[in-house]
Amino acid sequence: MELKRVVVTGLGTINPLGKNIQEFWEGLRNGVSGAGPITHFDASKFKTQFACELKDFDPNDYLERKEVRKHDMYAQFAYIAADQAISHSGIDLGKTDKDRVGVIWGAGIGGLDTFYQEVTAFNANTENPRFTPFFIPKMIANMASGNIALKYGFRGPSITTVTACASATHALIDAATYIRLGKADMFVAGGSESAINPAGIGGFNAMRAISTRNDDPKTASRPFDKDRDGFVMGEGAGALILEEYEHAVRRGATIYAELVGTGMSTDAYHMTAPDPEGGGAALVMKNALDDAGLKPEDIDYINVHGTSTGLGDVAEPKAILKVFGEHAYKVSVSATKSMTGHLLGAAGAVESIASILAMQNSIVPPTINQFELDPEVDPKIDFTFNHAKERQINFALSNTFGFGGHNATVIFKKLS
Question: Which of 165, 240, 257, 315 is catalytic?
Answer without folding.
Answer: 165
